[in-house]
Amino acid sequence: MNLTPEEKAIGKQNFQEAVGTSRRDFLKGTVLGGVAGGATIGALYFNYGAIKNDRLRVGIIGTGDEGGVLISSLNPDYIDVVAIADIRPYSFHRAFHGDLNSDGTKAARKGLMDVYGWKTEEEARENVKVYGEKEGETYEELLKDPNVEAVIIALPLWLHDVAAIKAMRAKKHVLTEKLMAHSVGQCKEMGRVADATGMLLATGHQRHYSILYDNAVDQISSGLIGELHSIRAQWNRDNLPGRDSWSPDLPSAKFVDQSGEPLTPEEFSALEKAASKAGGPEAVAALRDEFHMLREYHAWLKKRDQSKGADAEKWAEKVAQKRNQIMDYRTDAAAFGYEDKTLPNGYKRSPMEELIRWRLWDRTGGGLMAELGSHQLDASSIFISSQREGHQKVMPLSVSGMGHRSLFPLDRDVDDHVYTMFEYPGLGYYENGKDGEVADPNKKIVVTYSSINGNGYGGYGEVVLGTEGTLILDREKDAYLFKKSDTQTKIEVTAGSGGPAMDTYETGGGGAALAEVAAPENISRGYQEEIEHWAWCIRNPDPANQPKCTPKVAMADAIIALTSNIAMRENRRIEFKPEWFDIESDETPEGKTPRKTSELV
């Protein structure tokens, strides 16, 4: 978050030494011994077992950007992907081959062939049924497949509840991406259907399964940073018009000839000449911008033809991916519920744009608070809950905020800047530490959250401020611990009857207690662990075996994000009602009553 290299070195060693004190036996014994024996770190750390000989047979509904991340996080010892469903050729191709746009995207989205070791797409398709390639076929056909026991849903937000409820009605267990749903009423409907059908419903807030965050919670609950009283969280990005990650290029029938194949470089050159003759350089520039996807395809074709051996094969694979992205023009987005819309400034959005850029629209997405803020408000709730008995999730008291669009034009609904402030009950707020009677209304913890586009300075993370120290979580991969506000001192950590203590000292040492296994740079973001544990809970049915992000927990995260959007839209402070957090209550912040369970099951 804006620490100097020296401060980072001090803070990281402080954190490692603190974790080493509280988790030394685990890290040196159980984890290292388990890893040597072939067990996963997540299973050992979070106390769930292996299911290698009885893998969960899973169908994946939605294999786009986030679906690709989840595919990359699968452990074949736990999950047997037997089916996938989507509506876009580009998504199907990346599901098998991974995302070849860059080395970074390939690392994040490896594809099923890499995960399971299949050499060709043909071999992969012998093991994985594909639903949605045929005209009129939908993921509902996947839900009828008796070989599918459970589904992972990575569809756009507005479809989470629809797909999850249909899946549970079909007796499939569900892991759905966050947010849980597009409205609180939908969340309650999902939770009620899970209860009625007996299906296990989990939501993918992966910080619940991050060893880095769990160790941070351990330090907070031990009292190492004192009484928690403030949290600052942010997620800043460089997105600007023309380089917006939420506005990927759109396919078009203009990119193909009468046979349905992409235009050749020669055919596009002819279009450029015609544009130049009709409108000059500005018309040519506009044409090139509109046809950016096709031009990139041509550039990759040239690279392929100029390369040899392995390089030629690599570029051939990239060409195949780009061709499938162009082929998305065949997808009838309107047939799947996507709509056209004319914005106040006259901008016309097509169903295809709503499908591919769904995060930009209120009807299909939830903006910055749903996509980014929900992760960090979830983490903040976890930190605050760590100081409560039993670590029961603490609900916020109020939210106020503002949002605006100062950088992007009127080609979207969502804000590009959001700023929110939450009040949480701190230690001593409630009588006897339990929700109910208020003992001291001044005992509050304030959480501030902001997310902006246009400048990525500081990146993303959380700063947890206590009366005795400061804990910083940076980009889900690093943690730093400091005495009070001093980032220049090392911390001596002692454990025993006197409890944790922090003092400055001049020499280092002790940082190796984490060994290679739990050093922050080697800790996953939690995707693999959340999927493993979900599968293990299904294989080991017991009321005690529940995912960490149950419907109650996931709904609370959704309430926080969605109520924030209302507060910003209406420019007012909103107090959270306890009834909103009760799945059985019909009260919602939107004021819309959930449907009765009898209508859903």
Automatic annotation (TrEMBL):
<keyword id="KW-0560">Oxidoreductase</keyword>
<dbReference type="InterPro" id="IPR006311">
    <property type="entry name" value="TAT_signal"/>
</dbReference>
<dbReference type="InterPro" id="IPR000683">
    <property type="entry name" value="Gfo/Idh/MocA-like_OxRdtase_N"/>
</dbReference>
<dbReference type="GO" id="GO:0047061">
    <property type="term" value="F:glucose-fructose oxidoreductase activity"/>
</dbReference>
<dbReference type="InterPro" id="IPR019546">
    <property type="entry name" value="TAT_signal_bac_arc"/>
</dbReference>
<dbReference type="Pfam" id="PF01408">
    <property type="entry name" value="GFO_IDH_MocA"/>
</dbReference>
<dbReference type="GO" id="GO:0000166">
    <property type="term" value="F:nucleotide binding"/>
</dbReference>
<feature type="region of interest" description="Disordered">
    <location>
        <begin position="242"/>
        <end position="261"/>
    </location>
</feature>
<dbReference type="InterPro" id="IPR050463">
    <property type="entry name" value="Gfo/Idh/MocA_oxidrdct_glycsds"/>
</dbReference>
<dbReference type="InterPro" id="IPR036291">
    <property type="entry name" value="NAD(P)-bd_dom_sf"/>
</dbReference>
<protein>
    <submittedName>
        <fullName>Glucose--fructose oxidoreductase</fullName>
        <ecNumber>1.1.99.28</ecNumber>
    </submittedName>
</protein>
<feature type="domain" description="Gfo/Idh/MocA-like oxidoreductase N-terminal">
    <location>
        <begin position="57"/>
        <end position="205"/>
    </location>
</feature>
